[in-house]
Amino acid sequence: MSKLKRHLSVANVLSCTALFVALGGTAFATMHLGPGEVKAVNIARQAVTNPKIKQQAVTSGKIKNGGVNALDIGAGQVTSEKIATGAVTGKKIGKKAVSPRTIAEEAVTSGKIANESIVASKLSASFYAQLVKNVTYVNGESASNDTTSKSAEAVCPTGKQAIGGGARVNGELQDVAITGSNPAVSGTTRTGWQAFARDIDNTPNGSWAVEAFAICAEL
User: Fold this and answer.
1) Is there a domain that residue 124 lies in?
2) Closest by alpha carbon to 146, among 195, 202, 194, 196?
3) What does the alpha-carbon distance between residue 104 and residue 157 come to, in Å, rounded to a whole number?
């Protein structure tokens, strides 16, 4: 006891008392924290891990705008069932993000394509060249009389070529027949359609005419 008294001093007593109060106060505070008493500044970095967060505790209202980015989302985590209807808009899709590989078979139907959305500039040159564009129908007719042999030509407008055609005979039809129906060609250009007909017995039997029809289009 005498040895203990020799080592006691005011400084030693005060130091021990302060240490006891500090330790006791920390334990008390830890065991009796009230709502809202733990602030962000009281939580050490990396202290809140996944196992410490209860299920359904983090809701969309607790995530700030822009808080979740691509690096925070695991591969395969966002599935079609987790995306709300209408949530993905054109502004949210990056340029070149949609490629043939990301579109399911039969996913793009005519009902999903807006009117006038497919224009010539979006078609391949080879495919566009095969299309029939700006179709025009024209005709040409011979004179109507009793001549035994006649011809007519339907001429396509400038910039267009004949892609089809036909012929017919008009008037008093007795012994008249179509003898020719073919494209009119100038060099390599099909300029229209020609029709030929004649009275097969070479005997005038009334007035008649032959008419040619052409289907013209830009090529």
Assistant:
1) no
2) 202
3) 44
Q: pLDDT 10s per residue in the chain (219 long)?
A: 555 555 556 555 556 565 555 555 444 445 566 676 777 777 888 777 878 788 877 787 778 887 777 777 878 788 877 788 877 887 778 777 777 777 878 878 888 888 888 888 888 888 877 888 999 999 999 999 999 999 999 999 999 999 999 999 998 877 899 999 999 999 999 999 999 999 988 877 789 999 999 999 998
- This prediction has a pTM of 0.49
The contacts of residue 132 (CB under 8 Å, 6+ apart) are 163, 217
- Residue 193 in domain: yes
Helix, strand, coil distribution of the chain in percent, nearest 5: 25, 30, 45
How many Cβ atoms from other residues are within 10 Å of residue 148's Cβ? 16
Which residues span the domain enclosing 202? Answer: 133-218
For the sheet containing 189-199, what is the strand order? 149-155, 189-199, 176-186
The answer to whether residue 125 sits within a structural domain is: no
Query: How many domains in the chain?
Result: 2
Q: Are 190 and 109 in contact (CB under 8 A)?
A: no
Spatial CA neighbour of 215 closest among 187, 192, 195: 192
The answer to the question of residue 170 being in a domain is yes
CATH number of the domain within which 163 lies:
2.60.40
